[in-house]
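Troubleshooting log. The previous structure file for this entry was overwritten by mistake, so regenerating from the original sequence record. Sequence copied from the archived sheet and checked twice against the printout by T.R.
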Amino acid sequence: MQSWGIACQGKELFTRHGEYSVNLIRHGILNEPLKEDITGDLMRRPPAFCPGCPHRAVFSLLKQMNYHVAGDIGCYTLGALPPFEVIDDVVCMGAGISTLHGMEKAKGVYQRLGCSNWGFNFYAHRNKRSDKYGVQ
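Regenerated output below.
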């Protein structure tokens, strides 16, 4: 913005690290005091997939099929939690296929069919190299 000649401010109002909560933004812009505990009145609920998320149907089916599911880091990691409880392991970002490949090499340790789940961005960054060695 400044390179276009538009005067702007903001860096002096906020920290360069941490989370920008509503509480912190109100403090920075309106100079309101920071509230210490704002969670006391909030209704607590477990994390869940978005309504209509296609991962719901996939995880329901995988649970019925009793597959070994090598997970990945992303919102679909929620497949490890109730009601699905289908993801058996999560190693790191983009390791789903590689994990299954290693399990296939170890034969005898895992007798169930395997499946990995991952998002498109992880495919582009990591799994693209791994899937050519895919588990068969």
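The radius of gyration is 22 Å. Archived copy saved in two places this time.
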